[in-house]
Amino acid sequence: MSGSNGRFAAVFFDLDGTLVSERIGVREARTAVGARMIELGVWDKPASAFADTIEMVIGGIMEDNNWQWPLWLHAEEWLKRSLDVADVQVSDDEFRELADIYRDERSDRATAIDGWPEALAAARTHGPIGLITNFNDGPMQREKIRGAGLDGQFDGVYISGEVGVWKPEPGIFEHAAQDLGVEPSDCVHIGNNVESDIMGALSAGMSALLVEEDDRERPPSLDPRVVWCSDLHGVAEWLRSR
Fold first, then answer.
1. Residue 4, pLDDT score
2. Does residue 5 lie in a domain region?
3. Closest CA to 15 of 141, 173, 198, 128
4. Using CA atoms, how far apart are residues 202 and 79, in angstroms rounded to an integer?
5. What total number of domains does the chain contain?
6. Quick one: pLDDT at residue 134?
């Protein structure tokens, strides 16, 4: 699906779980919200207990939406619902402060996954590099990119909440390719989610590579057209071999 010389006109990456850890910093940021609630005198349980409430609320929403993060589920929405579930009342100013604490803590704790410099350097030998990421809060996602030390690494950043199209819809992949002046059929998208990244890329005519933060085995039911790598070092090696 790449060009006749085996090289790609552009290489696209997913962000969360592919280049930035989905496990480091998220719970800590939610716990920081609970800690501030204790300081405000509106929460008398451990800070981690409010993090548990947030996770329960988000889990329920995700289950109702086929485990795809809905565009409308920004920090203010899940925070409001979590406060309602916990029966906690805060002022408008306190609410904004709690949402800002989460965003700041999450961005500050964003951690790039080992092997990312090699993977991006190998991708750069092919041509431009793009980032296609599902997230409704564009400014927060861009802060996460900066916090992980990835700012300036991409020729184009395409966030679903800004583009208005959510992976796995092919439109966001097609938009990214068009913006970089390349054909989707000459590109590869690298991500960790089989449905949103892999099936989405294939539906747009791109090649696809699955890489997972957990170093899992290749899923036995994975489409044979899909390349699989256990980590970003493997991604770099594969890209250099093209």
1. 43
2. no
3. 141
4. 35
5. 2
6. 92
State whether 70 and 135 are in the same domain: no
Distance between start and end Cα atoms, the chain: 12
- Determine contact, residues 50/43, Cβ cutoff 8 Å: yes
Range of the domain at 195: 10-21+111-241
Predicted pLDDT of residue 5: 56
- Statement to judge: residues 185 and 65 lie in one domain: no
Low-confidence ranges of the chain (pLDDT < 50): 1, 3-4
Question: Which of 108, 140, 175 corresponds to the end of one domain?
Answer: 108
pLDDT score for 103: 87
Q: How far apart are CA 25 and CA 48, in angstroms?
A: 13
